[in-house]
Structures are given as C-alpha cells and as structure tokens.
C-alpha cells in the first residue's frame, strides 16, 4: 500500500486553516525561460531543474484546465488494475503529485510529496515541454498528454482563476480573453503548449489524447491509455473504470473533487472545481467578436500542422 497519507487530508485542511493570514494570496507571475509561472514556482526553479526522475515514472501532462484530474483518475485506476476502490485511498494531489506545486511549510511541496511517493509515480505537470526536467527524458519516462480545445480551456481557466485564490486575478471575462490569447496567464500560451508537446512525441514516449475524444467515447480512449501503460484489463473492468471516472462520479467523489482543499485556497462557492465537464460550453460565454479573434489566432498558429482540435462533438 502506498504511503499516501503523509499528511492525511483532515490534517492537511487543519494545517492550511492555521497558517498565518496572508500566507496565500494571488501570486504574481514571473518569467521562467520566457514562460510566466507563479512567483513561488519561479523562486524554486533550481530545485525543479535538479529533479531526479525514475524510469517507471509516468508524467500526466496538460495545459491547465484540459482535464488533468480526469486523466489522473484514469491513470491511477488503470495502474491499480481497475480496482477503483484503491483510488479512494487519498485525494488526487497525494496519489498523483503535482511536480511544480509550491506550498509553505509544514505543507509538503510537490517535490516533497514526489520524494515520498513509491514507484510507479503518476506525476502531474502543466509545464511546457521545454521546461520539463531533463531527467525524465534521460530515464525514458512515459508521458500522457491530455489536450482540450482552446475555447473551452479558456472558459474553464477563467472560472478557475476566480475560485483559486492563489492564481492571478482574472479580471473581467473581456480582459481575461485578451490576456489568455497573448499567453499572459500562468503556464503561458495554450498554443505553444499543445504544439510543443505535439512535436515532442516524435522523439519521446508520449501518448497524445484529446478531451473531446474522451468525452465522445471514453472506453475507446481509456483503452488507448491502458495499452500505452502496458496493462490489459477486461472489457468488464474497463466499463468499471469508465463509470468511476465519469464526470458525475468524480464530481461526487471527495477524493477527486478537491473538496478537501479549504476555501481560503479553492473557493468552490464561487465556482466548483468540477464545474461542467462539457465540450462546447464556450458557446455560452464567447461574444461573436471574441469567437472571431480566437478563430483567427487558431488559424494563424495551427495552419499547415497536422494537429487538429474540435470545439464541438
Ligand atoms: S487543473 O486545475 O488544471 O488541474 O484542472 P483540470 O483537472 O485540468 O481541469 C478541470 C476541468 O476538467 C473537467 N473535468 C472533467 N470533465 C469531464 N469528465 C470528467 N470526469 C472530468 N473531471 C474533470 C472539470 O469539470 C473542469 O472543466 P470545466 O469546463 O471547468 O467544467
């Protein structure tokens, strides 16, 4: 059994609630090799560059709000051979540590959690390809990249930046759209991210999966992930994994819905972490001119590439 309960979730919440006022605030962005990252991540960047990967590490990589938590649950379910009860042992962020997560002591940072996590580690990161510590490629680690269309990602990120009290203030939706398209948000440009990882799969062991495909046919896509991870689950077990990782099940599951994080960090009254989980919600938020702006930028950046996204299914 994994030593997941380094800091049991009850204690975790208590520690956060007892930290001095002002410990958490909306951190400003600082450039790390040209990519805007939140200041506490930038401040510890040397530690990040020196991370030692293990050959059986599995990276779960996304631009923020692409469905990271969904893929983390799918991978953990598969790695537990479909015994989904085992995934209830701890919250997502303990079972699948966030590489660049920062935390004031005594809370464990992503690197602290990683060091105490037994192999095979399922490591979440939002880093663009060029910022991933080199050790992961020297060790020939596998990476699952989960990508979501730019319009739904922007909407999801906007709501998240309102409820996550450590992210920069998103401002109004109109202001946010401008910043997002210029890549002036945490982890930088969506375009650079999806293109960088798409190109990287030529040279590294990377499975590229689309959120829209996963919504369309979860079993088909989960099977792809399973095969990539070298597992062989029966049809019946795959059905169980599909059910366990459905939006409804994950929204109700305290181990996946981030309800274990206190409201001073994630204010779910403002917007739930498991918000809608749909393809095409952007239609409810984009004005005609915003849509045109996104379409033009998409055309400019993606022209001539074999990387294609769907904004509806
Ligand atoms: S984070 O903070 O970057 O790690 O967030 P991330 O997990 O990448 O993205 C959250 C969005 O993913 C949706 N989600 C799901 N959609 C469909 N099915 C399942 N099971 C699922 N789990 C999470 C979640 O609802 C967020 O999207 P929006 O559009 O905001 O609802």
List the SSEs and their pairings:
Elements: H1 9-18, E1 29-32, E2 35-38, H2 39-43, H3 45-49, E3 58-62, H4 68-79, H5 92-95, H6 110-115, E4 122-125, H7 135-138, E5 142-147, H8 150-163, H9 173-182, H10 190-200, E6 206-210, H11 211-216, H12 218-228, H13 235-244, H14 247-252, H15 288-302
Parallel strand pairs: 3-4, 3-5, 5-6
Antiparallel strand pairs: 1-2
Residues 62, 64-70, 152, 156, 159-160, 245-247, 250, 274-277, 281 line the site of 3'-phosphate-adenosine-5'-phosphate sulfate.
If helices are DSSP runs of H or I spanning 4 or more residues, what is the number of helices?
Answer: 15
Q: Which architecture would the CATH scheme give at its second level?
A: 3-Layer(aba) Sandwich
Form type: globular
Structural class: alpha/beta
What's the arrangement of strands in the largest beta sheet? 4-3-5-6
Order of helices and strands: HEEHHEHHHEHEHHHEHHHHH
What is the rounded Rg?
19 Å
**Portion in beta strands:** 5-15%
CATH superfamily: P-loop containing nucleotide triphosphate hydrolases
- Can you give the mean pLDDT? 94
CATH class: Alpha Beta
Low-confidence stretches: 1-5
What is the CATH third-level topology name? Answer: Rossmann fold
Count of the separate structural domains: 1
Terminal residue distance: 40 Å
Listed once per kind, the bound small molecules are: 3'-phosphate-adenosine-5'-phosphate sulfate
Q: Please describe the biggest sheet, giving its number of strands, its sense, and whether it closes into a barrel.
A: 4 strands, parallel
**Helix amount, in percent?**
40-55%
């Amino acid at each position: 059994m994994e030593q997941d309960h380094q800091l049991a979730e009850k204690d975790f919440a208590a520690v956060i609630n007892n930290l001095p006022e002002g410990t958490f605030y909306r951190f400003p962005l600082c450039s790390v090799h040209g990519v805007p990252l939140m200041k506490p991540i930038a401040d510890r960047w040397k530690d990040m560059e020196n991370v030692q990967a293990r050959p059986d590490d599995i990276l779960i990589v996304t631009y923020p709000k692409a469905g990271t938590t969904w893929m983390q649950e799918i991978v953990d379910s598969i790695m537990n051979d479909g015994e989904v009860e085992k995934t209830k042992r701890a919250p997502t962020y303990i079972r699948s540590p966030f590489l660049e997560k920062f935390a004031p002591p005594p809370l464990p940072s992503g690197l602290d959690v990683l060091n105490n996590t037994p192999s095979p580690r399922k490591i979440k990161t939002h880093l663009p390809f060029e910022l991933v510590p080199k050790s992961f490629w020297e060790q020939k680690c596998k990476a699952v990249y989960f990508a979501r269309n730019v319009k739904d990602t922007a909407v999801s990120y906007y709501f998240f930046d309102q409820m996550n009290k450590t992210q920069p203030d998103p401002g109004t939706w109109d202001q946010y759209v401008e910043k997002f398209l210029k890549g002036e948000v945490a982890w930088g440009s969506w375009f650079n991210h999806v293109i960088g990882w798409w190109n990287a799969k030529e040279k590294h062991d990377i499975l590229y999966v689309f959120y829209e495909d996963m919504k369309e046919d979860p079993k088909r896509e989960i099977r792809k992930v399973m095969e990539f991870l070298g597992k062989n689950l029966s049809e019946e077990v795959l059905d169980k994994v599909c059910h366990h990782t459905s939006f409804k099940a994950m929204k109700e599951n305290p181990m996946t819905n981030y309800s274990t994080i206190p409201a001073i960090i994630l204010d779910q009254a403002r917007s739930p972490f498991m918000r809608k989980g749909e393809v095409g919600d952007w239609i409810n938020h984009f004005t005609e001119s915003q849509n045109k702006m996104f379409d033009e930028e998409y055309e400019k950046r993606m022209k001539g590439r074999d990387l294609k996204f769907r904004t509806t299914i």
